[in-house]
Structure formats: C-alpha cells, structure tokens
Amino acid sequence: MKIDEILDQIYNIPESSKVALKENISEVAYPKNHILLKADKIEANIYFIKKGIVRAFAPQKEKDITFWFGEEGETILSMKSYVERKKGYENVELLEDCELYELKVAHLNNLYNQDIHIANWGRKLAEKELLKIESRVISTELLSAKERYDALMSNSPSLIQRVPLKYIASYLGITPVSLSRIRKEK
Amino acid sequence: MKIDEILDQIYNIPESSKVALKENISEVAYPKNHILLKADKIEANIYFIKKGIVRAFAPQKEKDITFWFGEEGETILSMKSYVERKKGYENVELLEDCELYELKVAHLNNLYNQDIHIANWGRKLAEKELLKIESRVISTELLSAKERYDALMSNSPSLIQRVPLKYIASYLGITPVSLSRIRKEK
DNA sequence: TAGCAAAATTATCTTATGATAAATAATAGC
DNA sequence: GCTATTATTTATCATAAGATAATTTTGCTA
Questions:
Q1: Under 8 Å between Cβ of B5 and B73
Q2: pTM (2 decimals)?
Q3: To 5 degrees, how large is the angle CA B49–CA B119–CA A109?
Q4: Whole-number Cα distances in Å, A153 to A5, A67, A138, B139
Q5: Does A147 touch chain B (CB under 8 A)?
Q6: N or C: which end of chain A has fewer CB within 10 A?
C-alpha cells in the first residue's frame, strides 16, 4: 500500500503539508516474529503498514493478551509512548514479513506545532482510532464469544487465513480450546 | 469545576486561543434522567461536565449496555457524530441534576481550521480519550468480573455512591444478580 | 523429506456467570 | 409520611467457558 493512500485515508491535507510529512517517513522491513514495539520502552516511532500483518499484545506472567491486529494501511503505535511519552502496555509483533513506513514521533510533534493541516491530520488519526476501539468495546459487551467470532470473520475474513487461532482466541477473550469448540459447532 | 481547569487539563493553549474557545461555550443545566445525547441523532454539541455524573449506554432491544460513566471535568460526546457526523451508538443520560458546558461542534470545527493551538488541543482531546478506552479494553480482557469491580471501586470510589448498581453491573459486563454475588463475597 | 516442536482439536470435569423467581430494601411521587 | 414502583439481594437450576490432559494436525528446519 502506498504511503500517499495511507495518509489520505486518515485526512486530506494540502500537497505541501504531505510533502513535509513524507520527508520524515522512511521505509523499513522486518521479518516475521520480529518485535517492533516493546511494552517496557518509550517508543520513538510510529509505523504504517505497507505490507504484512501484526498483532499488539499486553504481556502477562502466564498469558499474553492479544488486543489488536493491524493489516495493510493501518497505523502501529504505542498509545502511551505517543501521547504521554511513557512506557506502554503493548508489544507489537510481526505475524508475517512486513514492510513498514516509519515516522519519528519527535519529528511529528514538531510538525504538529508548525503546520495546522498536519495538526488536524494528527487529530483525525486519533479520532479514527477512537472510533475503531469504541465499536470494539460495545461489541465486546454486547455479543457472545461465538457472535464476536462470527463478526470478526465477516469483518476481517483474511485474519483467519493469516493469524494463528490462538491469537484470535486471545483477541476474543477466550481460550484456544473454547474457540475450537465454537468453530466446531458451525 | 471551572471551564478553564477542564480545558487546561486536556492541553495548555495560549490565552487568546482559550478565549476564542470559550466564546463558543455556554452553560446549560438539565435535571436527573434527562437524555442529553441520543443514539438515533447526529448530535450538534459536545459537553464538559461542570457538576454531576452521567452514563453512556448503547440501547438494545432487551438490555441497554452501559459502557461509560462521566464525572466532573470529563467530556461528553457522541464519537460518531463528532468525528464523522453520523448517528452514533450511544445515549447519554444524566444520573444526577447536571451543570454542563456546551460547545457546538460546527464552531469547534471552524476553530480547528483557523487556530493551530486549538487544532492541537482537539488532537489531545481525542488522544486522551483513546488512552482511557485502551486501558479499559486491556483490563476487560485481563481481569475477572470480580477484579474489574475491585479495580473500578479503587479507581472511582465515588461511583458506587452515585450510580445505581444495575448500571455498574452493565458496565462490568455482568448481570445485577451476578454483581450482587460478587459484592457479598467480600 | 523426515523428524520435531508447536498448534489445534477433542474429551472430561469444574466453575463462574446467566436465567428465573421470590423476598427484601430503597426510592420517588402523591 | 404512605404507597407504588424500582432496585437489590438471595436462592435454585442451567449453561458457557475454563483447566487439564491426551491426541491429531500442521509447519519448520536441518
């Protein structure tokens, strides 16, 4: 996915502002299983996914909790690092070999203070993430595990092809054993 | 709670920008049980809570799902209306007589396009809401119902005094009967 | 491509929460 | 303040999901 397309789908800004933004973006690639962001670190960069799929998980003693999957076009960031420059909850792990666009938060913050279009682009970035997570919270409280699985499959059918079921189970808030039962009952 | 304090805790902006923002803010008051925002409407305003407590709920055929409580200083908005000018999921109901600061989204959007400080203030508003909801998602997946109740009580002890238990049960994703059991076991 | 490790499934048993109903307590309106 | 309504608690039974363990399948990698 092209960087222009990714930036535009967040919010349209004048060409000159987009150029300023892109001057601070570089391309990087990492292999499957690479840990891109770490929970015990203040992360300096955010990423946009050019190609590949990733998961964010909160590491715990016994079990990691997968709480997000990112596919092509989506933004990867440690919310706490990005917003408060504090250590976040999440590790982000690549589930496939990935190509990413990398953007330094420090540079982005400079742009936010210099360019009103980029400031509004950053506002939209946060607002759109907020909408996604809000609909997730509501569906979590509203639906049974089976219904959440069905909804995930119809909204993101490619996930089942690309992501180990144990991570999908964690995302749904159930055990892999329980997910296996649900899938069998279909 | 004073409007200056509420605006400042989101993001500090120059006095002139704050004046511009406040020129568009008026005070309103509504009684307990008033429905401030409706799920089937595109809402034109956002609110800040001067005094009182409210809940946001997604209305359903049989059961309403309470997914947020707002207390003094917090921002009330229909995310979908605010971000996309579309109908949202949520009703917002006042659980006490409330005093509110009202801000028209149309005016706010004008300011976002005119004043870079206000644009960045709006960015921080969304980012801070994002942090709150993210920590909620993680704790929902991580904790048992009893642990979520304990966490809610230690983070927001006033809730139990001010909010009927049936709404707290809904927020925790359990039935009032189940919450009653949990409380008894203490 | 053989062999090993990890993932997924299946089975059994346990447990937390749901559903329902009835009793008690709290609240609001007259 | 009294009464009707609503909220909360308690009890019983049903069920979805957890824990554990064994088995099968898949997928690496040497």
A1: yes
A2: 0.93
A3: 115
A4: 25, 16, 17, 24
A5: no
A6: C
Per-domain boundaries in chain B? 3-142
Structurally, at CATH architecture level, domain A3-142 sits in: Sandwich (2.60)
Over the stretch A158-169, which tens digit does the pLDDT of each residue have?
Answer: 898 899 999 999
Which residues fall inside 7 Å of strand D, measured at CB? A 144-146, 173-175, 177-178, 182; B 164-166, 176-177, 179-181, 183-184
pLDDT tens column, B10-36: 999 999 999 999 999 999 999 999 999
Tokens of B17: 């920008």
Rounded distance between C-alpha atoms, residue A122 and residue B123, angstroms: 6
Residue in the block written with tokens 């203490």? B186
Contacts of A116 in chain B (CB under 8 A): 113, 115-116, 119
Find the angle CA(B41)-CA(A135)-CA(B81) to the nearest 5 degrees. Answer: 30
Q: What is the dihedral of CA A153, A159, A160, A164, to 10 degrees?
A: -140
